[in-house]
Design goal:
Largest sheet: 5 strands, antiparallel
Distance between the termini: 149 Å
Structural class: alpha+beta
Strand content: 15-25%
Number of strands: 22
Radius of gyration: 67 Å
Oligomer: single chain
Length: about 725
């Protein structure tokens, strides 16, 4: 019994973590205790046998002292229960046999004493078994409650009348950091924070502490908030024998309360500072405001003015019917929750009008839901949005009208080449109704040569081009070709992603017909202009022939020279018209080819010997209009004629250089030079009597040019001028 009590006391002290060690130690002690009990019983039985022998044989007394026999009987039956009856039976038999052997007869009182040994043994066995069952039940109950105490997260403890710990569950040491030995025997307030000790002592002096929040200080100094509950333990007489209490760690609860408080504060700040009106109403078909956020001031109301009033007091009468179905849904959802216990979420958005304090109506958007036993509404003023939507609808209507009435055919094609929008002009262009066109592939309606090729405007837009414009012939349903200018542009959404392509079809049939007419007219005028140039050239040839005939009737050398110069001038102008007549461009003449032809004609006219006079020409590919070409040709004619006539007298050898090029986009430079005898030093080219130089000066002025003369090495004329622009003649 003592060993078991020591076992349970040790187990209670050390806790469940060392149970295996305790069991091993207990097994060893139990074995030693059994050996000791057997030894004691052997000694007692030996003494009983010795006393029997001593009384019967040595003293010769028939009646022996048998009260000693009760000691081993009681011990054996209490130690080994029913097995201990063997000792009682042994001693009863030994008593009867000793009387029979040594006294010669067995008396009635001997049988009675032997019977009493067995009866007393049975009684002790019964009492011991009942006591063992009670101890077992007590141990089971104690173990059960100890397991419960060890399993719960709360700290369960018992106190004596002085308030010192007599027991603490394993959660206590784990929470506080103290070992069990450091807790048992110490006053429980020693582990409380300083400021909580006195109030707690005052409360416990009253007997009990019902759910009191305190802070305990762990071994490492950390403060842990706990909820303390202490109850008195009474004996059967109603006297207080101690106290039992619970420490509950409320760290997470405190943290949750703090987070809840912070969350409530955040939501309160949001509700007070948001532009949306947040409100709570009673849960009924005629809901009344129980809370309204400060943002209701935007409508001119103070929150207190709305609380207690019906929502319908502020709502437009025509909009009440929009709110009533929502309220019915809320009521149904609440009823379902009451009967089924399942939460049903009901959240809908409705648009309605609210009246401000000045009587103006505002368009509002309200989102409602159920919160506990109330309804939560979040209301946003969408008056400006409604105005913007109305303006957008009007703008869209105007744009749609522009789209539909546009003079050009227009269609919108998605990325799969399906047409999803066309205007009236396009449907008229293809000869189909709009309903027939929409939904069809673009290449199945109004096809063209670029369809299914890389040149397709739609394909090029999809590949990243911003704008594509092509001229292409489209085929009408009746097979007729319609020339169009197609302009394709991307159609993008608000996110910048391509939605489709907008194509504009401009029917240029009339323009093509006008262009063809203009082309024919230009061809006719070009033929007429060529004919004019040809006739002017022929007329000048006639004039040249007349001059040639006239020269036969003149004998003076001077007169013949003058007539020849006139002929050369006429030839230079006639050559211009001849070149224009032969040219593809009737407005401009290739002046390089002209200078070469003019120089060759003058060499032939003056009978110059190419072996004596060498002609060097540096000519840039310059083309001139007829306005500039005639005076420029006459200047070259005069200067080159002057070189051939006067620079190399008496068959003298020399060189003539002609350089003609553009100095920039506007200015031209003509240089005619020779290395002949040169001009007189006192010659003033701007004041001379010779007709050729006078003509050169006049033509230079006509071309807005300048003339420079250099006689350092022979004679060099440098003329800088600009090309004349065509001036319309009246």
């Amino acid at each position: 019994m003592r060993v078991r009590k020591k076992y349970w006391a040790e187990k209670k002290r050390l806790g469940p973590l060392n149970r295996d060690v305790i069991k091993v130690k207990f097994q060893i002690k139990k074995e030693k205790y059994e050996i000791n009990k057997i030894g004691v019983m052997a000694v007692l039985l030996a003494v009983a046998c010795f006393l029997t022998y001593y009384f019967h044989v040595i003293l010769g007394i028939c009646t022996i002292f048998s009260h000693f026999f009760y000691i081993p009987v009681i011990l054996a039956c209490s130690w080994w229960k029913r097995k201990g009856l063997v000792v009682a039976v042994f001693l009863a038999v030994m008593l009867l046999l000793s009387h029979h052997i040594f006294a010669g007869e067995v008396g009635l009182d001997d049988y009675f004493r032997a019977f009493m040994f067995i009866v007393i043994g049975i009684v002790v066995v019964l009492l011991s078994e009942r006591l063992a069952e009670s101890e077992k039940a007590l141990r089971v109950s104690e173990e059960k409650y100890r397991t419960i105490a060890s399993s719960v997260n709360d700290v369960i403890f018992t106190l004596d009348l002085e308030g010192k710990f007599t027991f603490i569950s394993p959660r206590g040491p784990a929470l506080s950091g103290y070992a069990v030995d450091e807790i048992i025997g110490h006053h429980f307030t020693e582990f409380l924070a300083e400021e909580h000790r006195e109030p707690t002592i005052e409360k416990i002096q009253g007997g009990e502490i019902p759910f009191h929040e305190v802070e305990i200080v762990t071994k490492n100094g950390r403060r842990i908030p706990v909820e303390l509950n202490v109850t008195c333990i009474f004996d059967k007489d109603g006297e207080v024998t101690g106290r039992i209490g619970v420490f509950r760690d409320i760290t997470e609860r405190k943290k949750a309360e703090k987070e809840l408080q912070e969350s409530e504060e955040r939501y309160r700040l949001i509700a007070e500072n948001t532009s949306d009106i947040i409100s709570l109403t009673t849960f009924e078909m005629n809901p009344k405001y129980t809370y309204v956020s400060a943002s209701c001031r935007a409508l001119g109301y103070e929150p207190e003015e709305a609380i207690g009033k019906s929502v319908f007091d502020f709502m437009h009468p025509d909009d009440k019917k929009r709110l009533l179905p929502l309220l019915k849904k809320y009521v149904i959802a609440k009823a379902k929750k009451i009967f089924t216990g399942k939460e049903t979420s009901v959240s809908e958005i409705i648009e309605h009008r609210l009246r401000d304090k000045r009587g103006n109506w505002h368009y509002m958007e309200t989102t409602g839901n159920i919160v506990g036993d109330q309804m939560l509404f979040v209301t946003r003023d969408i008056t400006e949005r409604k105005k913007a939507e109305e303006e957008t609808r009007q703008a869209y209507g105007e744009l749609d009208q522009i789209f539909q009435t546009a003079a050009d055919g227009m269609r919108v094609v998605d990325k799969d080449f399906n047409m999803f929008r066309v205007n009236e002009t396009f449907s008229n262009l293809v000869g189909m109704d709009k309903d027939e066109v929409v939904g069809k592939k673009c290449y199945d309606v109004f096809p063209g040569p670029l369809c299914h090729t890389t040149g397709c405007p739609l394909t090029r837009i999809m590949e990243g081009e911003d704008r594509v414009e092509v001229e292409v012939g489209k085929e009408h349903l009746d097979g007729k070709k319609i020339p169009c200018i197609v302009t394709a542009t991307p159609f993008k959404g608000l996110d910048g992603e391509l939605i489709g392509i907008v194509e504009d079809y401009k029917d240029i049939t009339e323009r093509k017909q006008a262009e063809d007419q203009i082309t024919r007219s230009l061809e006719e005028k070009e033929m007429l202009l060529r004919e004019i140039h040809h006739r002017v050239k022929n007329n000048m040839q006639i004039i040249n022939s007349l001059l040639n005939l006239q020269s036969k009737y003149l004998d003076g050398e001077r007169e013949l020279d003058i007539l020849q110069e006139c002929q050369n001038r006429v030839k230079s102008m006639a050559m211009i018209h001849e070149k224009l007549y032969q040219s593809r461009d009737l407005a401009r003449i290739d002046f390089t080819e002209y200078i070469q032809s003019l120089a060759s004609g003058l060499f032939s006219s003056y009978g110059a010997d190419p072996s004596l006079i060498k002609l060097n020409m540096t000519l840039e590919g310059v083309s001139l209009n007829i306005e500039t070409a005639i005076p420029c040709g006459l200047m070259i004619n005069e200067l080159l004629s002057n070189c051939l006539k006067h620079a190399f007298p008496g068959g003298r050898k020399g060189e003539i250089n002609i350089d003609f090029h553009r100095e920039d986009e506007k200015m031209l430079v003509l240089t005619v030079s020779d290395n002949g005898v040169g001009l007189p030093e006192d010659l003033d080219i701007k004041d001379t009597e010779t007709m050729g130089l006078q003509l050169v000066n006049a033509l230079t002025g006509q071309l807005d040019g300048t003339i420079e003369l250099d006689t350092t090495h022979g004679t060099e004329f440098k003329i800088t001028f600009r090309e004349l622009e065509y001036k319309e003649r009246i």
